[in-house]
Design a protein that fits this description.
Length: 369
């Protein structure tokens, strides 16, 4: 456990509850443990610098005193000791409990069991969004457009693909670009079988695999700060991944190479503000807000979209508790409307406190011990 050197006094003055310095415990990944998402499973200097930059950014946020927890072996006992002594947990543990991405939801569930208010999505939200096939099934029921595809269960043979090629092959239960490479765009059934076999030999031993229509249009993302029905909700600008610097022949996709390999040509891709027809932008924003609300995302979120060959948007992914680091998409989107990194973090905390106070006024029929 570590702590910032001193609390920041609320700038509004006065002695009432709203002006009191609020105590925040920040939950982070454990740098001592193996990280399956990082190259080689090791936290490098860039990762450590990212944490330092986070702490420096939070040091600029007034009105809060921050304590940091990153030792997962003692996390449960540390949180028990802090119960009743902190106002909120800033849940930035997107690595998952013990750095297991499939245990990201466990952290939120643990906080609920302990009765510690927290930022970000509910356990149910994270469970749904981690399973892309379920998330897209929800989207279809809500009338949000998604790409057509088939789910190949773990161990099942590759079926006959009644789809037009090229198709896109990816793991069903990962994020951060894991399992996505230039090979993921397949132009025939032989290539599909090759990629499926390669995934099953590593990342997807016990994981379903998705085969979907490859969408050749713009690669887009949109972020949300705030909560539906509450004051101040911000829909951040839609950004487009700029692949113009890639050599001809490379598929325009954002996979592992773009996120983890500085030597890859994909490393030079960048996010720019998208220029879209009004009706396309409306479809994306309306669909994003609908999914944000239904999936029980809270305080902030990011949704990835792509245009098909006719320019029609399709939802690709829902990111509850998306990346928070200084160079993340959320920070880039926020900067497009003049919101700095420290300001973005402050807004997430502010929206969380507003939401929690509002939820406390709603009578619940559920049993509460």
């Amino acid at each position: 456990m570590s702590r910032t050197k001193g609390p920041h006094e609320a700038s509004t003055g006065g002695g009432d509850e709203t002006c009191r310095t609020k105590k925040v415990v920040v939950l982070l990944g454990d740098t001592r443990l193996y990280d399956p998402v990082a190259p080689g499973g090791v936290w490098d200097e860039d990762d450590l610098e990212t944490i330092d930059l986070l702490k420096k950014a939070l040091d600029e946020v007034e009105g809060y005193e921050f304590t940091y927890l990153d030792d997962h072996k003692t996390l449960l006992d540390d949180l028990k000791a802090l119960k009743g002594k902190v106002d909120i947990a800033f849940n930035l543990l997107d690595e998952g409990y013990y750095n297991d991405p499939r245990k990201e939801l466990h952290v939120a569930a643990l906080l609920e069991i302990l009765g510690i208010p927290y930022t970000g999505a509910s356990p149910q939200s994270m469970a749904i969004r981690l399973d892309k096939s379920i998330m897209k099934g929800v989207a279809r029921q809500l009338g949000v457009p998604v790409a057509s595809g088939v789910l190949i269960d773990a161990g099942d043979p590759v079926p006959e693909i009644d789809m037009e090629f090229p198709v896109f092959v990816k793991p069903n239960n990962t994020d951060a670009g894991q399992g996505i490479s230039r090979k993921s765009v397949c132009c025939d059934i032989g290539a599909v079988k090759e990629v499926v076999a390669e995934l099953r030999g590593g990342l997807c031993k016990d994981m379903p695999i998705l085969v979907e229509d490859f969408l050749p249009g713009k690669d887009l993302t949109v972020g949300i700060l705030g909560n539906p029905g509450r004051p101040g909700l911000i829909v951040l600008p839609i950004a487009e991944e700029d692949y113009s610097m890639l050599p001809p022949g490379l598929p325009r996709i954002c996979g592992e190479e773009a996120k983890w390999n500085p030597q890859s040509p994909y490393w030079s891709t960048r996010s720019i503000r998208a220029n879209l027809p009004p009706e396309t932008e409306k479809t994306i924003v309306d669909g994003t807000l609908k999914m944000f609300k239904y999936l029980e995302c809270k305080d902030y979120g990011r949704f990835d979209w792509r245009l098909d060959g006719k320019g029609k948007p399709k939802l690709l992914d829902a990111n509850a508790n998306p990346g928070w680091c200084w160079d993340s998409h959320m920070v880039k989107l926020s900067s497009m409307v003049g919101i700095s990194y420290p300001q973005m973090l402050a807004k997430i905390l502010g929206f969380a406190f507003d939401r929690i106070a509002y939820e406390a006024t709603i009578p619940s029929k559920l049993y509460r011990p």
